[in-house]
Task: structure prediction
Amino acid sequence: KAGVTQTPRYLIKTRGQQVTLSCSPISGHRSVSWYQQTPGQGLQFLFEYFSETQRNKGNFPGRFSGRQFSNSRSEMNVSTLELGDSALYLCASSLEGQDYGYTFGSGTRLTVV
Amino acid sequence: KQEVTQIPAALSVPEGENLVLNCSFTDSAIYNLQWFRQDPGKGLTSLLLIQSSQREQTSGRLNASLDKSSGRSTLYIAASQPGDSATYLCAAELSGTYKYIFGTGTRLKVLA
Result:
């Protein structure tokens, strides 16, 4: 059974550019969440989608956005990149969220220079 | 506002020891609590999920308990091995929020 797949694994971008990260959940999982991990702030919640609807959003600027497609795959986009956006971005999938726990992918390491 | 704290921040033990990692949360109305391990530069591996109606979960050498009234969860690792060396994270979810609040983690090193 394939796990949560995140692409790409590594990215280097320049300040001011935009970036799109992709997440393919475990087959049958309809909930996809995104988290940002930095040494200073730890793991912070970005947003959660279920059946193409955003159910919750974390406290991040509007430069961070996401969406979910009908096949449950999800993308997150960061526009006008800043140095502080350098982080490990983790995606998690769940059958429906809440009672089922979450399975995380290996993450995308974004470096902004 | 839910806050999750993990103590200690780092722990170094000789191989074979039994150990306890602690996780405290401020809002007792949590729904689920999940323990993860993270190896350097990697994603999170789920260890144990304690659902809202449960108080304890066990998997192999791992046992996790949840006491909502006191705002605490503990992860017990029996007979520790060098392969257990990693950062351990607990995450709490409030009902209807569909998000985890993560603790800052305990970095464990098991010496051979």
Remarks:
- The mean pLDDT of chain A is 95.
- The interface with chain B takes residues 4, 6, 31, 33, 35, 42-45, 48, 50, 55-56, 58, 88, 90, 92, 97-99, 101-107, 109 of chain A (CB under 8 Å).
- The longest strand of chain A covers residues 42-50.
- The two ends of chain A are 37 Å apart (CA to CA).
